[in-house]
Amino acid sequence: MNDCVFCKIIEGDIPSSKVYEDEKIYAFLDISQVTKGHTLIVPKEHVKDIYEYDEILAADVFSRIPMVARALKKAFPDMKGLNIVNNNEPLAYQSVFHSHFHLIPRYQEDEGFAMKFENNQTNYNQDDLLEIADTINKNIQ
């Protein structure tokens, strides 16, 4: 795609700090470096978000994530955790519309990155949960 920053990075038109590349993915350091080693994994095929993946592309991309994660762990033995984040659509903080996965090494609690999950368990009873699950299940193809 001509105006896609990640496509330009993959093509070498924009410089990047490449971590890994093969025929299916390109992995490089995120320029923000939320934490040391913050890496993006990008499919070489331009897809906007997770909704555009087919099973083959998903297998190609997802099968490489553990390899890069293990490399991060080996490279930074002081790493105490790893967040893998994929944002889809603007409300979910997607800002580059070429699907990508953030691998964010964690070294300590207070380091400029946080994820917060509210516990809304009291808002749903078992019947609500069964209805939600059934609704999702009916839409699986």
Automatic annotation (TrEMBL):
Q: In chain numbering, where does the motif Histidine triad motif fall?
A: 98-102
Record-linked PROSITE patterns: HIT_1, HIT_2
Pinpoint the HIT domain residues: 5-113
- Check the record and name the InterPro entries matching this protein: HINT, Histidine_triad_CS, Histidine_triad_HIT, HIT-like, HIT-like_sf
Q: Which domain of life is it from?
A: Bacteria
Residues crossing the lipid bilayer are: none
Pfam families, per this entry? HIT
- Extract the PANTHER family matched here: ADENOSINE 5'-MONOPHOSPHORAMIDASE HNT1 (PTHR46648:SF1), HIT FAMILY PROTEIN 1 (PTHR46648)
The entry's protein name is HIT family protein
Q: Which organism is it from?
A: Fundicoccus culcitae
